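Dear Dr. H.,

I hope your travels went smoothly. While you were away I took the liberty of generating a structure for the chain from your last submission, since the lab meeting agenda had it listed for discussion. I wanted you to have the full record in hand beforehand rather than looking at slides cold. The sequence, exactly as received, is reproduced here:
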Amino acid sequence: MTATADAVRWGVLATGGIAAAFTADLIDLPDAEVVAVASRSEESAKAFAERFGIPRAYGDWNALARDEDIDVVYVATPHTAHRSAAGLCLAAGRNVLCEKPFTLNVREAEELVALAREHGRFLMEAMWMYCNPLVRRLKALVDDGAVGEVRSVHADFGLAGPFPPSHRLRNPQLGGGALLDLGVYPVSFAQLLLGEPSDLAARAVLSDEGVDLQTAAVLSWESGALGSVHCSIVGGTATSASVTGSKGRIDIPHGFFFPDRFLLHRDGRDPEEFTADPADGPRNSLRHEAAEVMRAVRAGETESPLVPLDGTLAVMRTLDAIRDRVGVRYPGETPDEDLAAELTPA
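The corresponding predicted structure, in token form, is as follows:
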């Protein structure tokens, strides 16, 4: 299915907080139309539909997947269900935007990518950071050599909590822990600029439930560049990031995955400040990733150049490798499942 120049019709699969945030931004786009929502609970689906003025509410995922009036399904379930939910929609012929982390592990991610390619459907991870205009500006500067050859990258994301053991961030059954929920951002930021690392080392503090409360990793590339990434659900961090090169440095002082500004320090020059354009809307808006999906679907593309599937698989390999190093494994992952798949340097 390829959307026309008319409104792109969306279905929303799940009714949690991120689904509500995305839907609120989506309905503000003049060329987007939310036509259906699904949940495992019909009551929840109907309440969500009423809240956002959505015409159809389904009490099961299959009905949404089979709805041929839908151009794109936004999958917003917990990531332990991404493989089944997104796979159901792809097999039924729907295009899919799937929340991050893309899946629980790289095996599931590879299965989704293979399914999308088999059916010729569009598939993208909802890595909204990659679609943010200011982040795209930063990447363009780095790619153009503004800081010279990249030597190091740093990024952190931590929440203070405390989160009780029953919370989804600590529930192994829901893929809990800091790394998959928060660490995906620092890892994705580093790989946006340097590609997939050639090696890594990692340490973590684990909860009694066996998920990571905080994790730190050092990534290395064959170029000699190093990256330090940190995530936590036991301490609020600055969510800062920096990239240092042979001729300068870029600092994002806070909110690196949806920045309002960053500073470019070039050797021998005064610092330059780059700020978000108010015309792009609120800096925490999800509209940019929605707009990119709609652009690609209208163009008949099966993946986005901003969030390519090979890049998503590379991030999943890194997350798997970090989990292997720190000893986090989730229910349903067999004891002999290889989480230490070889990294594939770009």
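Two observations you may find useful: The longest strand covers residues 150-158. The two ends are 32 Å apart (CA to CA).

With kind regards,
E. W.
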